[in-house]
Design a protein that fits this description.
Blueprint lengths: L7 E3 L2 E3 L5 E5 L6 E7 L3 H19 L3 H17 L2 H11 L3 H24 L32 E4 L6 H5 L2 H8 L4 E4 L8
Parallel strand pairs: 5-6
Antiparallel strand pairs: 1-2, 3-4
């Protein structure tokens, strides 16, 4: 494992300004794993949020096809994670190897599914709901004025699915597909994962 494991990654740079150190543990034995995790300081959390906000305009302006390429690249990287990675996840979670291998495939599949949707383009929803000012009992506004998914998204690691609903799971995939940078907070039960 790289020496920087356990450091925060903010705007593409490693940071370990905090003094609080956590250990990840083997979920079966309780034994501490050999990695130190430096808890982010309030300033580092703020810097991560600001870095994501600064990245938003550039990332959001990327064409859907470019974001699809990015999601596919993440999926390829997930699929390339080998037996050492699976063994580490199993140690941290006490989940069986087959479950983690399946969840890794599910996670990369979610990335590829969102990439496919981006390439199809049907998410643009070419339906226009114009205002109906005379509608009763209440008028309907022009729905084109409402936009969803503007800005960075925070994802908090889930305890029950360390990959598919956590690190690189559906929430992360959806945010990245929508053009939103992600600030991810690892779950304390599987920090190495």
């Amino acid at each position: 494992m790289p020496a920087t494991i356990g450091h925060n990654i903010i705007g593409g740079a490693f940071s370990a300004a905090g003094s609080v150190v956590h250990k990840s543990h083997d979920a079966t034995t309780g034994e501490a794993l050999p990695y130190d995790f430096i808890q982010a300081t309030p300033e580092e959390v703020d810097a991560a949020a600001k870095a994501a906000a600064a990245a938003y305009p550039t990332y959001r302006s990327q064409p859907a096809a470019k974001r699809a390429e990015f999601l596919d690249a993440i999926a390829d990287e997930l699929d390339a994670l080998g037996d050492e990675f699976v063994a580490t996840v199993c140690r941290e979670t006490a989940l069986p190897t087959a479950r983690i291998q399946g969840e890794r495939g599910r996670t990369s599949g979610q990335m590829r599914l969102f990439a496919k949707v981006l390439r199809r383009g049907d998410f643009y929803g070419a339906r226009i709901d114009r205002a109906l000012p005379d509608r009763q009992p209440l008028p309907r506004p022009d729905l084109r004025q409402y936009r969803i998914g503007l800005g960075p998204v925070a994802v908090f690691g889930a305890s029950n699915f360390p990959l598919a609903f956590s690190t690189a799971g559906g929430d992360t995939a959806a945010a990245l597909a929508a053009g939103c940078p992600v600030v991810f907070k690892a779950h304390s039960g599987h920090m190495t994962t």
